[in-house]
Amino acid sequence: MIAQLVKYGRYAVPNLPQGIYAELQEALKIREHLTTDLCVVQACVHNWLDWYFPVVLTVFKDWECQICHSIAKPSSTAACHVLGTTLPTAHERSCKTRAWSRSNH
Fold first, then answer.
1. Exposure of 79 by Cβ count < 10 A (0-12 exposed, 13-18 middle, 19+ buried)?
2. pLDDT, mean of residues 3-12
3. 97-to-18, 26, 90 alpha-carbon distances in Å
4. What are phi and psi of 82, to 5 degrees?
5. Three-state DSSP class for 5?
6. Could you report the per-residue pLDDT of 61-86, keeping only the tens digit for each?
């Protein structure tokens, strides 16, 4: 099989970059991984905000803004007080999870 591929010229010589080009290829691979990880973390934070502080996403246009960070920094209960919400209890979270799982089946 391999001999036939070589015989008919259906093969490609691998192009392994050398020097600066190898470093650029590695940098692009690292950038792609970092970009993917950043998107995953942003989605997790968005889900957490939606779960624990649903009002934040309606009050602030962008949850990454400086004002939103300064409100959330002191403590979660202080942020809840400022936003006029309360943290959901374990019972409320389990009810919400059960209701969500029923609606998706």
1. buried
2. 80
3. 53, 42, 10
4. -65, -40
5. helix
6. 777 777 666 666 655 555 555 555 55
Q: What is the pTM of this model?
A: 0.51
Residues found in the chain: 105
Cα(102)–Cα(105) distance, integer angstroms: 6
Q: Are 63 and 49 in contact (CB under 8 A)?
A: yes
Q: What is the DSSP string of 28-43?
A: HHHHHHHHHHHHHHHH
- The pLDDT confidence band at residue 93, using thresholds 50, 70 and 90, is low
Q: How far apart are CA 12 and CA 5, in angstroms?
A: 10
Query: Smallest Cα–Cα separation from 51: which of 34, 61, 39, 63?
Result: 63
Instruction: Give the pLDDT confidence score for residue 85 in this predicted structure.
Output: 54
Distance CA 53, CA 80 (A): 7
